[in-house]
Structures are given as structure tokens and as C-alpha cells.
Amino acid sequence: ADEESVGASPAGAEARPAGVDAAEATVTTADTAATATPASPAAPLLSVRDLTRVYARPEATAEGRADVIGIEGVSFDVAEGSTHGVVGESGSGKTTLGKAIAGLIAPDSGTAVVAGYDVARLGKRERREFRRTVQLVHQNPYTAIDPKFTIAAAIEEPLVNFRIGTRAERRARVAEVMEQVALPAELAGRRPRELSGGQLQRVAIARALVIEPRLVVFDEAVSALDVTVQAQILRLLERLQRELDLTYLFISHDLAVVRQISDTVSVVSRGHQVESGPAGEIFERPRDPYTRRLLSAIPRPLGAVSGPSR
């Protein structure tokens, strides 16, 4: 609160009568405190429990197994306004996990609940509402943006698909979100081929944010960028999270990047979650040999970054 508001009475509150002494005020406060119900912790925006997805092989292997585990028994919670990193090598199940949480594939068992939506049990109407709640940003923006569209049209497309606003309102919203992701207004009429990889990834982020989701899933969203541009995008994501109170699921094979942006982390290997917890604990005191091996492969020095700047 600013200096002028400190100590001010709430709007509409009655002034305390001058004759009430300090002792009475103390008793009243103590009585209120004694009868007050303790505040319960806020429910997580994303809650994952024993999430499992198995892919069937067309033929049995020599060992007789016909199925491939995408993910099995994954569980974690993500508080609203925070970032949960998911890290592991290629083929570890990271992308399967992200797609299941985003509702793009159905889990075989377990639950993923996002803002009250049970992803595996969405009706037609709920699924449409859910699509506005969760958005996905992929590694390659070239595959997510129609090359025939202008940049403004590409960002506007989700608004059109969800029938949000008039044409004038949609254009105003596009201009607003372009400013939020630091895309110059003069790029609005350009085509994707005229933009750099970093600029296109900002367009992909703008497309995700234009319908005001609560959870954004980033699947290797900065891995194709050079180190300088990667750092710029990470700073952008941190700023957007602070300004818009966004929640992120950040999937990457790069532990240094996950360490920079994440509050909590899950480490996955061959579809299984080997450990999960606060980022500081995972990176400073890893319990699993797989995590220790991944950490040992990070080039030194890591730099001064030890977690997201809040």
C-alpha cells in the first residue's frame, strides 16, 4: 500500500467512538483472533496424480512386450503464479506429459486437474472452456503459424476461433498483446518468413496469451534459439508471469534453463518421475543418481542464476 493509505479505515467503515479505551480494543481483538478460522492453503492451479499414458506397439518385441510407456505414475502440484519445470533426456516422456496436461492426448489412468477441470473427463462444452484455460507453446514456431497469415492475423486467429470480441476489439487486443511480448507494431503486416526465430517465438507466445489462459505449457520453447535470444525470451516469460499472474509448465532437456526459470521441478526418465520438489533442493541436493548424472553434464560455470527472479 502507498504511504497515504497506510492506517486508513476501509471504505464505508465507521469511525471508532472516542470513548472506547485501549483495553476494550485489546479484548475485542483477542476474542476475534480466538474465534477466527485459520486460512486454508490455496488449492494448486494444476494437480497431477499418478498420470499414466502407454503407447501400443504394432508388434510385440523380442521380450514379448507390445507397449511403450509414455509416462507412468507421475504426480506433482503447481501453485498458481509459479513455474514447474519438467526435465529429462530425449524420449523420457516430457512431451507426452505436456500433451496429456494440455488435453491433446488422453491418459490411460490417473488425473490431471487444471483450474478445476479434470482433463480426462471433459464434456464438449467444458473442453472448449478448458482450451481457453490452457495453451501450449511448441519448440518450432514455424509449424504453429500459417505462413500465409500476417503476424497480426496469426495472433488474432485464436480470438476468431473462440468467437471473442468484435473485429475492432480483436485488433485492439492483438495490438495490446504484441506490446506485451515486445513485438514492434510495424511487424503486424509482415509474414512469418520475414521474422527471425526469436521474433517468431514471441509471436507464438502472443498467440498463446491473446485469449488470456491461466496455464501455459512450454514444450522445449527456447531450445532452438541461440543463447542470447534464449536469455531474452526467458526474461520476457518471467516478466509476463509477474504482470499477468500466469502459471507455467516448462518442459526442457536443458537443466540450466529449467534451473533459471523454475520454482519447482520434476525429473523424468523413461516415463517415470525419479524425483520432484523445490528447484533449490533438486539442483543443490539431488537424491537420484539420474538427476546427479544430468547435473554433472551441465557446462560450468552455470552463472549466478539459481532460480527465478521474483
TrEMBL record:
Q: Which UniProt keywords apply?
A: ATP-binding, Nucleotide-binding, Transport
- A GO term for molecular function: ATP binding
**Could you confirm whether the keyword Transit peptide appears in this record?**
no
Q: Could you tell me which residue ranges the ABC transporter domain spans?
A: 46-295
UniProt entry tagged with the keyword Protein biosynthesis = no
Region annotation Disordered: residue ranges? Answer: 1-20
Q: Which domain of life is it from?
A: Bacteria
The alphabetized list of GO BP terms reads: peptide transport; transmembrane transport
Q: Which PROSITE patterns match?
A: ABC_TRANSPORTER_1, ABC_TRANSPORTER_2
Q: Which Pfam families match?
A: ABC_tran (PF00005), oligo_HPY (PF08352)
Q: What is this protein called?
A: ATP-binding cassette domain-containing protein
Species, as recorded: Rothia santali
